[in-house]
Amino acid sequence: MLSLRRICQILIIIAILTIVILGFHSPLETTFYTFSNSKLPDAFNGYKIVLLTDFHLKEFGDHESVLVQKVADCKPDLILLGGDFIDEKHTSLSPLNDLLKGIHTLAPIYFVSGNHEFDKSTGEPILQYAEMQALFSQYGVQDIDDQTITLIKDSDSIQLTGRKWRSTNPARGLSPADDNTFHLLLFHGGNFFDQLSPYGYDLILSGHTHGGIVRLPFLGGVFSNTGSLFPKYDAGLFHQGSSSIIISRGLGDARIPRFNNPPEIVCITLYQK
After folding, report:
1. What pLDDT, in 10s, does the model give residues 87-120?
2. Where are the domains of the chain?
3. Which of 107, 21, 83 is nearest to 254 (CA)?
4. Which one, of 218, 199, 203, lies nearest residue 234 by Cα?
5. Between the chain's N and C termini, which has fewer beta carbons within 10 Å?
6. How many CB atoms lie within 10 A of CB 202?
7. Which residues does residue 110 pair with via DSSP β-bridges, in sequence order?
8. Tell me, which fold does domain 28-272 have in CATH?
């Protein structure tokens, strides 16, 4: 017959294993934000944006059915792809094809590159880049690296600037936002908010941080992309001056698996202030 001490030891082991299993197998979540700004024109009041980042060709259900349904449930007016949709370790782009096939009729889709779209040593696009661009062409996804476009709804408009991935000096050559127009910036590197905020973009949408990879209660993300601990910008909504940023925890995994850090899609509703 087991002693009370032995029973307690077994229960503790079971509890620890349960925590570990649940921590590494968190289901996909949707995180909802509302963002208000006085410059937002009438037609964009209630405008919904879905932000997807750091896909890394991860599979969410049969033919990405889980991810596609969650995007559809947000009823987006705009879908933004914030980089790291491919990487060198995955040669098949079938997950990306399935995702785009499922969402391309929901709303206009725009993309900017992340660090994993490029070879770390040479800075050149990885082999899968051309195939990714072919899928974008097939499904009507517009690559807006280093471009500014006008989003029009009824007789009103806002601006969207896309920023190509830069690992250093991400703001070099970046034009300041228009003070008189609501202006979005889509850039992969959320950890660069301090360098980007002085340029006056009303809302910056980013990823890259993977939510700090490992998340601890009350402390947030543990690891930064630079190797330091407890990064200032891990995930969520931050403000600095006249600029704000929403950093997604992202969808997939890069080199280190997530722990207590569910993959997420971000759904933002814009309102007039």
Report:
1. 998 899 999 999 999 999 999 999 999 999 999 8
2. 28-272
3. 83
4. 218
5. N
6. 23
7. 80, 142
8. Purple Acid Phosphatase; chain A, domain 2 (3.60.21)
